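Lecture 7 notes: from sequence to structure.
We start with the chain below.
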Amino acid sequence: MELRHEMKISAVLCFWCFLIMQGLSWAEETQVYVVYMGAAPADSSVDMLTESHLQLLASVSTRGKKKLIRSYRHGFSGFSARLSKEQAVAIAQKPGVLSVFEDPIYQLHTTRSWDFLQQTSVEIDSNLDEDGASSPRSISDTIIGLLDTGIWPESASFSDQGMGSVPKRWKGVCMEGTNFSAANCNKKLIGARCYSSDEDIAAVFPGELSPRDTNGHGTHTASTAAGNSVAGASYYGLAAGTAKGGSTSSRIAVYKVCFWDGCPGSAILAGFDDAIADGVDMLSVSIGAPARYMPDFDKDPIAIGAFHAVAKGITVVCSAGNDGPTSSTVTNAAPWILTVAATTIDRHFESDIVQGNNKSIEGEGINFSNLSKSPVYPLIYGEAARSNSSSGEGFASHCDYETLDSKKIKGKIVLCINNKNDDTSEYSKIDGLQSSGAVGAILIDDLEKAVANTYTSFPVTKISSRSADEILSYINSTKNPVASILPTITVNKYRPAPAVAYFSSRGPSSQTSNILKPDVAAPGVNILASWIQEDDSPDNVPPGQKPSGFNLVSGTSMACPHVTGVAATIKAWNQKWSPAAIRSAIMTTATQLNNDKAPVTTDAGLTATPYDIGAGEVSPTAALQPGLVYDIEPDDYLFFLCNYGYSPSKISLITTIRQGFECPANSSKDLISNLNYPSIAISNLSGKGSRIVSRIVTNVGAEDVTYNATVNSPPQLNVKVVPDKLHFTKYVKKLSYQVIFSATNSYAKADLFGSITWSDGVHRVRSSFAVRST
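Predicted structure tokens for the same chain:
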């Protein structure tokens, strides 16, 4: 789920009053636009590019220099500027301009998790050199860049104790700002930048002009990806243990692109631009557009920045979004991005209900209840507490705003129905109940029950509809129903796990159904990681406690850095591998089984499909030794753009790889399925036709080895692999094969899933496939 922001209403009102007093009438006439001009010409210096951007602005405005906000001149060419709509339209017609779009505001997609991943991953031989993998360089040379809300540098997760010198190839800076100096960087946190240029906002929120994290999200993701091992970590005693990142010896560089009101696309592009020039090895981006807004690739700041980063050999890992469980909601679906869905781990946070009839009901939630453990508090259903003066809008059973009589709920525990489509948000309900004198709340929520939200000192827990029936039966059986809500306890080794988080966005991609997204899944529910320790909201801190240096947070935002940490380790062992090879290693070694050795399920209890978890749950150990990889050459993405529908002239601007680039005459969206991806997606397969898909695999294991193919397909499909045996030698590293898909007599309109696995007896190189009928 997205992070819950605790902004003070008075501060926001003050900000808008400030704008009004300043008389900023221009804000009504102009707004920020991004002008994207493709790859930076190889023969242009950064100064030349900036001058060309100013000249382009001057062609539509006499105040061009004052309108320029930021110039992109390292990884790609373009700029952001404050323009009128007419000026933006005029610039879009200029030669060399690929796209002009309004600056979008993206949102954040917001530790036992690593131990759990290791437990469920495939066991492999620890002597990697015997299987052909190169000896690692100093693993601490791997540099992870994070586009996020900044960082809290004092956290123990970012200590540089015992680390060697900063890699000489690093060209970044440690930008100074409010409560942040160059001394805050060290051999672990080697770079920090901030991209807020809005002095009006900074007048109210001074922390916006600093790499320092005032939100917590960036600190959490950075420590998940590459934080040091910190013993004795917990969230006020819950989830106690050692917190650590996936690549504890990697370096961290942060790019603060998200602020109090979201993540401007212009700032996201600036972060990508600088990260490319600074020398990061990979980028972790837990940000994305909402599912209802899916910009095309040349108007999506993340797709644009990631394209140019990947062209420079930088792996880009992104969150899939939090708009699940609805289908076709996955975001960050460009094929050059590694897209991550979210799953649970084998830990949950139990807060049980004790009834007056001596029955105990299991609940889920994080609270530090000070209620008596004995059931002595009156229990009431929301509908029974309806206010006589209620206007009829909303539902008392849902405890909607102003539907309840405060006299009827004072001193009582209130049972409420809760779902994501309610007019009143969950936390608004809780605030309303608490202010009306209720002593606790029980929320009925089948969808969100698996995610333990934090309620701090107010006793709240969530239950299923089945459990609610038991409670309602008890309420109706006595004149004086009583209960209590117990404080949360941590339950480890919970089964089954992993399961797909309800909020995790699902495929197929609405942009291109011939690329299977998401790519892979990773833990993203109630993840313990570092947090900011300056919190002016006492509601977030249990009574008598100081702000915790750790927090439990859920979202695909939390899943993304798990995969980034795995990718960083692969990069350390295989310095010359491309981003596509690293992605392939992660995808083809992923697992589809939970800790009961049964198929991973969704929040609804159904077997998860590739639309839910992509290739499966990431396996940190197995990914180091994939056997075969599906690599992608730079030109392959250009042919993808041809098949997607971009013109050769546009593609020539996007890249400097090949000047005068021409698209094949037969380009079509169906041919996107031939991109050398580790998974296969086919759309519009008719009941009478067939489709042939080609793939090339590269051997990265033993020199003399034979792989055999096995197919797992549903009865509605015939799937044939040609050839079904591949023999690699010292001199033959790459081999191709084809997969022929055709319908059987039982074929019907449906989404059909299966897999193709190549094995040499040691490695299992698995590719998921999804086929959509016409």
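Points to note: The domain at 138-346+498-575+601-624 is CATH 3.40.50.200 (Rossmann fold). The first helix runs from residue 9 to 22.
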